[in-house]
């Protein structure tokens, strides 16, 4: 590591699970690149929290739905940190509740461009920097899936569920491709978590609607998911790759 703290990129790091990952990673000694799309103030608040706790971080704008933006984000990390040790592919979108026979082509293209293609391209750039095949020192990637990938989300958003299933398949395949190159690739599969992603999909009350049906009778928190992600990034998970960790409260 050349005496420097490990560096981490969190896509979609300005809010929700991404912000929780950034703050926890900063507290555990990572230098953190907080990626955001449009809410610069929110990203800078996360950066300020990390710095106030003695950590190192910076905010970097970029839409993971655009390859040019992704390349610019990674180039900025090269400039600021000199290397990349970890990636959390957190950025993603949902949409309004809809059956498959109501879904438009534009919605499908947006969903898969951001949730799937964006995750692939970020993973590609990370591997190019981490893999011993490319002269790197190794590293770890954690992708964000969802319990929807396992449940299918009928009547809600099958397209979102399918996009997250694709992320899980990518996780397994990439893990096997780079296992001998000192890069570990895992995923987490959150269940119902108290973040604003439900509101962004037009269902701000969804947590309250399903709470009583959950095995633990409560939703999870972004911090609980972040702790699972940081474990997968850490040396404590040094023999773990190609794994999807359920953080669903038994759902």
Note down, in words, how this protein is organized.
Helix 1 packs across helix 9 (222-233). By secondary structure, this protein is of the alpha/beta class. The chain has helices at residues 16-27, 40-52, 67-81, 105-130, 148-151, 158-178, 197-200, 206-210, 222-233; strands at residues 7-10, 31-36, 56-61, 86-89, 139-144, 183-190, 244-247. It has a single domain, classed as NAD(P)-binding Rossmann-like Domain (Rossmann fold, 3-Layer(aba) Sandwich), CATH 3.40.50. Helices cover 45% and strands 15% of the residues. The termini are far apart. The chain is built from nine helices and seven strands. Strands 3-2-1-4-5-6-7 form a seven-stranded parallel beta sheet, with helices on both faces.
Number of domains: 1
**What would the CATH topology be?**
Rossmann fold
Total count of strands: 7
Largest sheet report: 7 strands, parallel
What does this entry show, briefly?
The chain has 251 residues and is α/β, with parallel strands linked by helices. It is 45% helix and 15% strand.
Core attributes:
7 strands; seven-stranded parallel β-sheet; 45% helix; Rossmann fold; 251 residues
Helices and strands, with pairings:
Blueprint: E1 7-10, H1 16-27, E2 31-36, H2 40-52, E3 56-61, H3 67-81, E4 86-89, H4 105-130, E5 139-144, H5 148-151, H6 158-178, E6 183-190, H7 197-200, H8 206-210, H9 222-233, E7 244-247
Parallel strand pairs: 1-2, 1-4, 2-3, 4-5, 5-6, 6-7
Helix pairs in contact: 1-2, 1-9, 3-4, 4-6
